[in-house]
Amino acid sequence: MSEHFSVERGLFDDVMVPNYSPSAVIPVRGQGSRVWDQQDNEYIDFAGGIAVSSLGHCHPALVSALKDQGEKIWHVSNLLTNEPALRLAKKLVDSTFAEKVYFCNSGAEANEAALKLARRWALEVHGEHKSQIIAFKQGFHGRTFFTVTVGGQTAYSDGFGPKPGNITHAEYNNLESLKALISDNTCAVMIEPLQGEGGVVPADAEFIKGVRELCDQHNALLIFDEVQTGFGRLGEFYAYMGLGVTPDILTSAKGLGGGFPIGAMLTKTNIAKHLTVGTHGSTYGGNPLACAVAEAVFDIVNTETVLADINKKSQLFIDGLNAINAKYNVFTEIRGKGLLIGAELGQQYQGKAVAFLNAAMAEGLLVLVAGASVIRFAPSLVIPDEDIALGLVRFEKAIANFTQQ
């Protein structure tokens, strides 16, 4: 079939819905923290598929898990369970606050499940009055209509008709703004321990403790969206573990599957029991292929060596970015945690994050943005130190070129 037409960037415009605007670069293979395009140009990957490729590309343990499971069974309906799903759930329960796990295919689906569970719990335990959901401005929780409305960026939720109701937004890292909104009618507060899409903004320790206390005072569930921050990304297995705050519900995806689509919602038995048979479901949730791959990711990431290394690698990034900034003075702040790092552009470069991303790509480096004025880095958690060093050399070249222009 492929002989009859060439697979190039132009084909995207012919056959794909125009909700993305991808680069001309089409990656065709990857190894570790490097990828190669159709012309065999090499790129160092500081983007990680938006914090997804937690063990880089084609990690042998993940390839092996996928091949092994691929020879066994691919799919069963949820009238049946399967071994990889049960093994993964057991490992997640044993290593977190949670007692029960629900599997789905993405972060948005995990968040959708968390929000539906919170509403159902509140209705059954407290009554219809308790339905308010509070989230935070600049937050991001997915693209389903429920999750995008809970997300705090109206640009993503406007223009699709009437939105789900009784959702309101406080200011991140501002406890007073949450205090002003929360009441005994609040069923849940949903928050990212570090806002990823919203500009790589970490939560203040006191703020997040205050959020937990307010939820307790008002009998509201605390939902941690750890889709981007979880599974080692910030140097803890889940970010809540480093904050001294335990949520009631936690959502996970992205790095959980290392590139294979999977999402999970984790919670306690007394909350989980409200999703009785038939109240929620997912055709592909708990897919044996996805769970087998995620289990392989788990076995590597949830180890002292890998988790301890993440913070060392983080420091290499931060030192390197600060050294570049000392020369070129393009950033006002380098921030983040673990291997989720944001570099905020200074006044004269406001709104130009995508231009920096393109300049980096021209030098053989993949980076991300987080909003119009923040460059975001979310590489493999096991990226070799030499790839960090070389990637930063390429990044410096890109900045030199861009600032000279």
From TrEMBL:
GO molecular function terms noted in the UniProt entry: transaminase activity
SUPFAM superfamilies in UniProt: PLP-dependent transferases (SSF53383)
Secreted keyword on record: no
Enzyme class: transferase
Binding site for pyridoxal 5'-phosphate: 107-108, 140, 225-228, 283
Modified residues (N6-(pyridoxal phosphate)lysine): 254
Keywords: Amino-acid biosynthesis, Aminotransferase, Arginine biosynthesis, Cytoplasm, Pyridoxal phosphate, Transferase
UniProt binding sites for N(2)-acetyl-L-ornithine: 143, 282
Entry annotated with the keyword Magnesium: no
Catalytic activity: N(2)-acetyl-L-ornithine + 2-oxoglutarate = N-acetyl-L-glutamate 5-semialdehyde + L-glutamate
EC identifiers of the protein: 2.6.1.11
InterPro entries per UniProt: Ac/SucOrn_transaminase_bac, AcOrn/SuccOrn_fam, Aminotrans_3, Aminotrans_3_PPA_site, Class-III_PLP-dep_AT, PyrdxlP-dep_Trfase, PyrdxlP-dep_Trfase_major, PyrdxlP-dep_Trfase_small
Self-association state and partner proteins as the record states: Homodimer.
Protein name stated in the entry: Acetylornithine aminotransferase
Organism name: Colwellia echini
Lineage, broadest ranks: Bacteria, Pseudomonadati, Pseudomonadota, Gammaproteobacteria, Alteromonadales
Chain's gene name: argD
